[in-house]
């Protein structure tokens, strides 16, 4: 456990190459301050998790990055550009895709219609053929209505949908939530495939076993700030270090 949590500096990138840098980020819902100086960075091609208890501020961090929280201070730099003050559509156009926890699948639309709903915002997005190659379950269900999908298929569709847009940085909020272990494993495989294709991913996750399977590094969030950071190897070597934060 890191007792100097209050004074943790942003992590060293090692290579000096940073895709996203969050520094001293504070954010509010109306008068209620939820983030208190979040600081972490993500290098190109990395998968970094945000882990922490319910209410720690993980979702709010993702929402701040994509511009859904307006009241915020500090810095969020993507490819060197400051996102603070930019609007959600401007941020999306830079190549950042957000997959919210609630998945937001349109139940009256088919898989294919859901897939084609978000506009292509940047060149280089995955084609329909590439998406179905990555998500074979969705190909089989492409004509099915959203309501007919299992939780796992809905989660896959929610991720697949942001891949057409041209996003290269994916923000995934608890993709394993509420899914059976066998389905969680499938989602893990898909995330690994996306990483192998070069996507950079920030994953909010409470399922440590799942996080360990896919991540390079972990950032522990408590009360709206970062209280610890560890590589995946460090987490594997000392699970108790992070369990103590999660209270499990
Ligand atoms: N729309 C909102 N209005 C006011 N307060 C909110 C809102 N959404 C979240 N909060 C509060 O902000 C704090 C951080 O919530 P957040 O959803 O970011 O946490 P989290 O770490 O993602 O946890 P969870 O897994 O429960 O979503 C919590 O105290 C929560 O009650």
UniProtKB/TrEMBL annotation:
SUPFAM superfamilies: P-loop containing nucleoside triphosphate hydrolases. It comes from the Bacteria. Keywords: Amino-acid transport, ATP-binding, Nucleotide-binding, Transport. Belongs to the ABC transporter superfamily. Pfam families: ABC_tran (PF00005). It comes from Aquibium oceanicum. Residues 20-248 form the ABC transporter domain. GO terms for biological process: L-amino acid transport. SMART domains: AAA. PROSITE patterns: ABC_TRANSPORTER_1 (PS00211), ABC_TRANSPORTER_2 (PS50893). This is ABC transporter ATP-binding protein. GO terms for molecular function: ATP binding; ATP hydrolysis activity; branched-chain amino acid transmembrane transporter activity.
């Amino acid at each position: 456990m890191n007792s100097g949590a209050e004074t943790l500096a942003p992590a060293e990138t090692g290579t000096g190459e940073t895709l996203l840098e969050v520094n001293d980020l504070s954010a509010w819902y109306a008068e209620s301050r939820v983030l208190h100086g979040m600081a972490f960075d993500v290098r190109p091609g990395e998968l970094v998790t945000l882990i922490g208890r319910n209410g720690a501020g993980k979702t709010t961090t993702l929402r701040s990055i994509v511009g859904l929280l307006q009241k915020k201070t500090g810095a969020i730099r993507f490819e060197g550009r400051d996102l603070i003050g930019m609007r959600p559509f401007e941020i999306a156009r830079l190549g950042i895709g957000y997959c919210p926890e609630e998945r937001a699948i349109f139940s009256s639309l088919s898989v294919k219609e859901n897939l084609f709903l978000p506009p292509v915002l940047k060149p280089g997005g995955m084609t329909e053929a590439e998406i179905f190659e990555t998500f074979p379950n969705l190909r089989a269900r492409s004509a099915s209505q959203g309501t007919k999908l299992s939780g796992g298929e809905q989660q896959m569709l929610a991720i697949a949908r942001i891949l057409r847009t041209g996003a290269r940085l994916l923000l995934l909020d608890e993709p394993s939530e509420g899914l059976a272990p066998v389905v969680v494993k499938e989602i893990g495989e898909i995330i690994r495939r996306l990483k192998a294709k070069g996507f950079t991913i920030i994953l909010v996750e409470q399922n440590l076993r799942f996080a360990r399977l896919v991540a390079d590094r972990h950032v522990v969030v408590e009360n709206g700030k970062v209280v610890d950071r560890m590589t995946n190897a460090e987490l594997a070597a000392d699970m108790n270090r992070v369990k103590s934060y999660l209270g499990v």
